Amino acid sequence: VKIVKSELNDCVYFDIHTIILDAVSHLKKLGHSDIMFLSEKLSAAKIDIFVNVMRECGLRADAKSALCTDLRFEEAGYSLIENLLDSGKTPPTAFIAAYDEIAVGAMKALFERGYKIPGDISVMGINDIPSSRYGNPPLTTVGFDKKTMCKSAVRLLLERILNPQAPSAPRLIQVEHNLIARGTTAKRKADKTP
Asked: Cα(first)–Cα(last) distance of the chain, in Å?
C-alpha cells in the first residue's frame, strides 16, 4: 500500500521510510547484509524505499534485492519463496516482507524446504497483525498504533464536519511505530543451507 502524505488535505500517516530503516537496521545489527524484500504489486512502492534504505545503511541493493508478485497476502510470500528456491538461487540470510501476511507465507515455504527460522534465515514483517504474535515462532515485525491512527483520522474528520467554515491549514499527523523483536530474527549464521 502506498501511503501518500498530502499537503492539501488533512492526513494521518506513518513514515514507511523510517519503518523500513528500522527493520534493515535491526537485521544489520544481527550481522545480516544479504537482505531481500518480499512484496506484491500493490505494495511495490515500498521496493524503491527498501533499496534506498539498504544503500543508506551501507548495504548492497538493487532491483534484484526484491521479489514482487501479482498474488496477495500469504499466497504472495509462499509463491515468492517457492519461485526463488526453485530457480536454484541461494536465498539471502534475511527477508523483510512488505506486510506480515507475506512474511507468514514465506515462512511456510521456507519451513517446507527444511529451513529453520531464525536458525537459517531471519524473517520480518510490517504491520504487527494480531496473529503475528501467535506463530511458531512469533513474527518479528514493525507495528504502529492502529487505534491512535483511527482515532486521529476520525477526530480530524469530525472537526471538519462540525466546523466546515473554520479556516485551517491541512493538518498532518504522523503515527509512531515500534520494532517488535520476537522469534523470527537472530544473529546471522555462517551457513544457511538446510
From this structure: 33
